[in-house]
Amino acid sequence: MNLQNDLLLRAARGEKVERTPVWMMRQAGRILAEYRAVREKAGSFIQLATTPELAAEVTIQPVDLLGVDAAIIFSDILVVPEGMGLPYEMVEQRGPVFPRTVRTSADLDSLRIADPEGDLGYVLEAIRIVKRDLNGRVPLIGFAGAPFTIFCYMTEGKGSKTFSVAKKLLYTDPEFSHALLQKITDSTIAYLKAQAVAGANLLQIFDSWAGILSPEQYRTFSLPYIKQICDAINEVPVTVFAKGAFFARKEIGALNCEVVGLDWNMDAAESRELIPDKTLQGNLDPCVLYATYDQIRAEVKKMVDLFGTQRYIANLGHGVYPDTDPDKVRCFIEAVKEYSAR
Q1: Residue 94's pLDDT band (cuts 50, 70, 90)
Q2: Active site residues
């Protein structure tokens, strides 16, 4: 299917664009009243994420309501451990919780390599519905969590500021840690390739907890597994977003990916120097969207000036916060479009 707006894909491939494409992480979510209405109808976050028709509906909302240049499938990075045999719950005010954790070889043996159609078919069906309903208006982004980030949740059992249980295992049982990371990686490769077959035009790998590792640990327990994923995917462009891994930008830039996502702590000029041959994505601080409209426009201008309009995808440095005013979000998106089309 020919896309009416293929700016994101051209920018990802390093081709010339008339203006900078823009989308936002967590754009399908609580900032929109329309999302909250569908979420209420679904009854729970997990019910929403596992009902393809509803997941597709909220995926498309930001395209209609905010004017972004791409949709990103509404799902969760934790569907992969669920597909491997480790179900999770989403607890209000607490976030994800795993009733059972993986900390021993026996726990590891109870897991399977996730089968995309059999275990995660609801995500693939949502992708197919979105592709049909978008009818070529904009590209669709698929995604998965990086193996280390998924490892954190599977071993810790919940969100954490330190993930000390997960990090302890890296020191005390590296053999187990590598075995679990490999199992997650194998599941993730199959899942992402299936997303591309279902219709995703670009795939993003989220290493949300990259920043809790030392550079040495990151090179041992995260990068090799992300490399395996990047090397395995040749169907569509790939973006690697490793939050907090400012120390690994050069190594991430050397991966077999097209786009490197940056958080707001990563300087634009320095990142261009470290990653000269890739498209960069990011990296406005989400808190800028609490500022005045004039401040938002000024910050966008500053950001676009620093990155340039080519080989660049405008985004936030992390997901948009749920209490952000949708009109401020629209201001951000329109400012990128207007200022970069010069």
Answers
A1: confident
A2: 26, 30, 39, 76, 153
